[in-house]
């Protein structure tokens, strides 16, 4: 890790052929090791100021580089950005877990992060999921971290004014408008991915929605319950159910239903859907269910 991280610190964001596998190597090193070694690995990476400065530049390229419309495969630039966001999200999580000393702080614009998901702007889906992974990590820390400082700039570059309502103040640094825009975009993205049978990425979108509602519930329960009970969720659920001809025992559907049950959205999920799932569970061979489905089913039944 030490020589690879030093090598990265000497690169420029345009050195994609070298940087992308190097960032992947560091990402895998963090995730595929013992907890003791993981803590040491985090310390090595977070003590490398040049590496963190390079990460800052790579992440900023997300807003500067142009993207072709829906490419059939990831370009080297797309892959580098995806790796950069995933590595940053992991460092954010593990720095918090081990309370590791940080030698260089990253500064990221929350408005641009949210807009990347809300408006997409032809960004590849995998890059969006990587950004969502970071967004989940920073939300779980209430946007407060020694590693990452979140700012929210206006289009003119001036700092955002003070919150204009009590709800905005409670959700700071998010605003109610941003929350609803993000929820609608996640719903649309979920339908698009699910109908395309891109189940792995669908799970990432559901996870982002779960984390967002958890954040809202801690900050302002009324806002969280209001967001969870929006009628559009009912349409989303029916679309996903109708788009799957085999079984409703799918991880994404189960996790969505669990989410609506958790926040008591009786207008979104009915006794009929609950009964359908219980009936399928009674008829299914539970030993043959995939692990992700088994976990989602366990959480759903516990919530019921």
Automatic annotation (TrEMBL):
Recorded hits in InterPro entries, A to Z, give:
Immune_Signaling-Apoptosis_Reg
- GO BP, sorted A to Z: meiosis I
Q: What is this protein called?
A: MEI1 protein
Species in which this protein is naturally found:
Odontophorus gujanensis
């Amino acid at each position: 890790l030490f020589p690879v991280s030093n090598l990265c610190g000497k690169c420029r964001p345009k050195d994609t052929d070298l940087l992308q596998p190097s960032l992947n190597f560091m990402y895998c090193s963090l995730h595929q090791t013992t907890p003791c070694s993981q803590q040491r690995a985090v310390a090595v990476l977070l003590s490398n100021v040049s590496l963190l400065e390079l990460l800052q530049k790579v992440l900023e390229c997300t807003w500067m580089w142009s993207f072709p419309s829906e490419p059939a495969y990831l370009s080297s630039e797309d892959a580098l950005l995806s790796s950069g966001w995933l590595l940053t999200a992991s460092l954010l999580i593990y720095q918090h877990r081990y309370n590791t000393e940080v030698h260089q702080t990253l500064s990221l614009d929350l408005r641009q992060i949210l807009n990347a998901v809300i408006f997409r702007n032809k960004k590849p889906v995998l890059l969006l999921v990587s950004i969502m992974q970071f967004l989940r990590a920073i939300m779980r820390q209430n946007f407060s971290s020694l590693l990452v400082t979140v700012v929210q700039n206006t289009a003119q570059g001036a700092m955002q004014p003070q919150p204009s309502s009590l709800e905005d103040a409670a959700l700071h640094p998010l605003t109610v408008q941003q929350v609803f825009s993000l929820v609608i975009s996640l719903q649309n993205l979920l339908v698009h991915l699910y109908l395309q049978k891109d189940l792995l990425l669908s799970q990432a979108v559901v996870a982002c929605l779960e984390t967002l509602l958890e954040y809202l519930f801690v900050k302002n329960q009324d806002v969280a319950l209001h967001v969870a009970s929006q009628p559009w969720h009912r349409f989303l659920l029916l679309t996903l159910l109708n788009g799957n001809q085999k079984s409703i025992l799918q991880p994404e559907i189960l996790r969505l239903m669990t989410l609506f049950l958790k926040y008591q959205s009786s207008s979104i999920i009915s006794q009929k859907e609950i009964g359908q799932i219980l009936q399928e569970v009674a008829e299914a061979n539970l030993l043959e269910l995939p692990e992700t489905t088994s976990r989602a089913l366990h959480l759903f039944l516990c919530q019921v």
